Amino acid sequence: MNSKRSTASSIRALRAFLNRRRRHPSASAPTAVSLFSGAGLSDMGYCLAGFRLAVHVELKTDRAEIGQANFPESTWIRGDLRVCHERVAEAYRARTDTRLALLAATPPCQGMSSSNPSRGKRSTPEARRHAARNALILEVVPVAKALAPRVIVSENVRQILTLDTEIDGEKLRTLDLLARMLPEYRFFETVIDVADYGVPQRRYRAIVVGVHQDEPWLAEMVEQGRRPWPRPTHSMTGAPRRSRWVTVRQWLEGMAYPPLSSQTLEAARDGHPLHFVPHYDRDRFLLVSSIPPHTGKSAYANDTCPTCGAQPVPEGRAVCHVCQEPMRNRPIVVERGEARLIKGFRSSYRRMPSDQPASTVTTNSSHIGSDNKIHPWEHRVLSILETADLQTVPKFYDWSPALSKGKSYLVRNVVGEAFPTYFAFLHGQVLRGLLLGANRAFSHLARSE
């Protein structure tokens, strides 16, 4: 297939998904329970794939309020899952007497996230403080024991695959402990990049799927060398038999967002309630606007002195080597008349490369000092609307519980925390096909590595 035509088709498919209407599954649809639900963005993908969400559990009230507005038919339990396992089972049984089809869990991953500066340092005091939080995936066990779901799905950062948990003096990989505690399930695990599914964003995540041993399709799936998640449809090169990744330039140009600029308050806003960005003072705007468009370069590499025009000013300098004035178009601070560079990673204060998918959308998407967060060619970060679209959140999603209280920042945070709705939709489609016994479901599954 022609690569340009293939990319255009991928963009059309995603835009159609974003603009689709909400359809509520029928009373006979396979049921689902969501743990650590957040605002339900991933759950909406399962819903659109034909699952009926019966119960949600979320600790944070502000997230639960947004989620409940979008899943009013579900029973929302606001509290800590570690102390409300029985309430989950009771709430589900009060809703239906059918066997639970899908148990979805997306426990928080603060201690393991790639945005955590202490990642990889698991023996530090900070790491030990996060240990209990990182092992929250094990809280799936009591719910699974009580409701015997046909399939369990958990999404988390990649580090969950190597995380250890200590129990009775024995250190085990957390996922091995999960399998030991739930011997009635066969577990499968992988790491996916959502760009490989047509999402115009690089986002790696671990996917863990537990299939109950009594599922009639389990043995055949294994025999065929298949795995219970969708097969990738895209790749960097478009081969073999895949479409090319959708780049951030192709996506942003295809969506045709009204231009914004952080230079002034007026230029930083548009009529859409989610299409606005922070506006900067003169030096901060100079830092951003000096990065050449479409280059993917960092402000640390800005090499023209804004005072005398000398070029190139050697990298690593906070002052011009000619006029000795501060390089205000680089990330610097001036203290007591002395200028110094702000410490940061190579990905800090950097434009997204135009010829690649967008960098991972995070809760820090409004911060230019975070990883690759500057717009590829406009002088700003991405708006909340643009990040929500990159996370493939359907346009019908109701953000009013946050926006009515002036909490647009909460929307940005919730969007950054979520797993793309579109991948959950694709995953939900293949799982639903397996659960309903569709013979063609195997052809849409990934192959074992």
Produce a short descriptive summary.
The chain has helices spanning 3-18, 41-48, 61-70, 85-95, 125-134, 140-147, 174-181, 218-223, 248-255, 282-289, 384-390, 400-403, 408-417, 421-435, and strands at 31-35, 52-58, 75-78, 102-105, 151-156, 164-167, 170-173, 185-193, 204-212, 226-230, 234-235, 243-244, 332-335, 338-341, 445-447. It has 449 residues and is an alpha/beta fold. It has 2 domains: 3-245 and 419-447, Rossmann fold (3-Layer(aba) Sandwich), CATH 3.40.50; 265-382, no CATH class.
List keywords for this structure.
449 residues, alpha/beta, Rossmann fold, 2 domains, 14 helices, 15 strands, elongated
Can you give a write-up of this model?
- This protein folds into two domains: 3-245 and 419-447, 3-Layer(aba) Sandwich (Rossmann fold); 265-382, no CATH class.
- A hairpin with a 2-residue loop joins strand 6 and strand 7.
- Helix content is 29%, strand content 16%.
- It has helices spanning 3-18, 41-48, 61-70, 85-95, 125-134, 140-147, 174-181, 218-223, 248-255, 282-289, 384-390, 400-403, 408-417, 421-435; strands at residues 31-35, 52-58, 75-78, 102-105, 151-156, 164-167, 170-173, 185-193, 204-212, 226-230, 234-235, 243-244, 332-335, 338-341, 445-447.
- With 449 residues, it is an alpha/beta fold.
- A seven-stranded mixed β-sheet has the order 3-2-1-4-5-9-8, sandwiched between helices. Strands 6-7 form a two-stranded antiparallel sheet. A two-stranded antiparallel sheet has the order 10-15.
- Helix 2 packs across helix 14 and helix 4 (85-95) packs parallel to helix 6.
- The chain is built from 14 helices and 15 strands.
